[in-house]
Amino acid sequence: MTDLDLGREAYPIPGPPNSNLADILERVLDKGIVIAGDIKIDLLDIELLTIRLRLFVASVDTAKKAGIDWWETDPALSSRAARNSLLEENRELRERLEALESKTEETSDH
Predict the structure, then answer these.
(1) What's a Pfam family this protein contains (predicted)?
(2) pLDDT per residue as tens digits for the range 17-68
(3) What share of the chain is helix, strand, coil (3-state, %, to 5)?
(4) What is the dihedral of CA 87, 91, 93, 94, to 10 degrees?
(5) What is the pTM of this model?
(6) β-strand 33-43 against 46-57: which pairing, if any?
(7) Would you call 37 exposed, middle or buried from its count of C-beta atoms within 10 A (0-12, 13-18, 19+)?
């Protein structure tokens, strides 16, 4: 039988320093991480379904640096985008109305 010497100091295992979850999350959000994968379902060499997944996890600032800002232009996610969407729709409707009114005036003049 082997006796353990519990009085000895344990030596740390060489490697990266311990990181807690907050440190890891901060690093991921600061640098960003991309996860990519494809799911493909075939039956008798006939492709039935292909799903391509791309996941980019980062902070808003990191995403903006990477040129990603879709949340600012999606009306479902941004009240400013919804407001801009309404302004654009109103502008288009006014242009169409002016075009119709000018055609109506042209036909009434003849």
Answers:
(1) Gas_vesicle
(2) 667 888 888 888 888 888 889 999 999 989 999 999 888 888 888 888 888 8
(3) 45, 20, 30
(4) 130
(5) 0.40
(6) antiparallel
(7) exposed
